[in-house]
Amino acid sequence: MLKRVNWKLIGWTLLWVVCIGGTVTLMSFIGVKKRELKCTSVDILIPGADNFIEREEIDQIIREGNGVLVGRLLQDINLNQIEKNIQANPYIAFAKVYADMDGVVHIEINQRQPVLRIINAGGQDYYVDQDGLKMPVSANFTAHVVVATGNIREHFAGRPDTLRTKLARDLYQTALYLKKDTLWDAQIEQLVVDERNDITMIPRVGNQRIILGDADSLEVKMENLLIFYKNAMPKVGWDTYKSINIKYTNQIVCEKNKGDSGIVKPVRSLTPADSVRVSRQVIDQLVEKTILDEVAKDTEKKPAQPVIANAAPRERGAGQTGAATRNQQEKPAERKTPSKQEVPANKPAQAGNKPNNKQRKI
User: Fold this and answer.
1) Whole-structure pTM over 0.90, yes or no?
2) What's the first-to-final CA gap in the chain, in angstroms?
3) C-alpha distances in angstroms, 85 versus 61, 104, 108, 290, 300?
4) Tens digits of per-residue pLDDT, 132-148?
5) In CATH, what number is assigned to the domain containing residue 65?
6) Does residue 97 lie in a domain region?
7) Which residues form the domain of 307?
């Protein structure tokens, strides 16, 4: 009779009963401790050195929504509500709030990272973050990002929102591309939109204006500009061209600067702004060195060479000079002397046609 009993099954059943009972007992002890556990401190973590929002502002958000946390029972603190209140801040992209068994409430915050600052035609000033959402400027911190000005009609309602117009999206894509590239992030400092909604890039080194147009085929345009920087700029200089037009794919149109007018400017006294200008020149020289180092590097993938056209006006007489050059090249062919076979052997040479021995020796 005892041989028919499955002792193995009974053993496994008892083991499961003991495990479940132990788990329930442990959870009950944890629940009792949690009900009696009080908040001992609040730990706020804001990664990064550039902060749009400070710890004091987070404390204020918590006090306004939930009061003082330290000394209160954890079961009386609504952690989910604290998360929602913190994430409502326009500078915060994500917030995580939780408590440990020591009574410490942890708050982890991820800030929005701006890549573009826009000053629209109406004078509104706001940022665009890396996700393409608008966000307000901050009195605590100013982000060092490219600035877009000019004929921009994108409105900002004061809260995070998506970009509405194609021009604003093109500006965002351009700024995002510049931010990811160390060379262009150091070289381009401003984007200007004209009346035709063409985007013009203002460089830090050089006085030229780089006409981008829109963000269509942006990578190809910037690769063409890099080739131009690498092949042309070291030879002609950074201030040779007034504008560089890269809005057409696989074509670069340049316009040269006009010559000096010859007018001597009066000498003026030095002002405090001169020291700022000198400091700016030093910074520009450092940036120029960085750009030259980046340009010197061989790219792994070399695109097709773009066609570089010079848009400078033709000077007077340029056509005549070209014609004269062609005539000079053709002239030696006209002076070809006849061979001896062309002169009849039985006809004596005339006095005027008698060869000069001295000329032969020469």
Assistant:
1) no
2) 139
3) 7, 19, 13, 44, 49
4) 999 999 888 899 999 99
5) 3.10.20.310
6) yes
7) 211-258+286-314
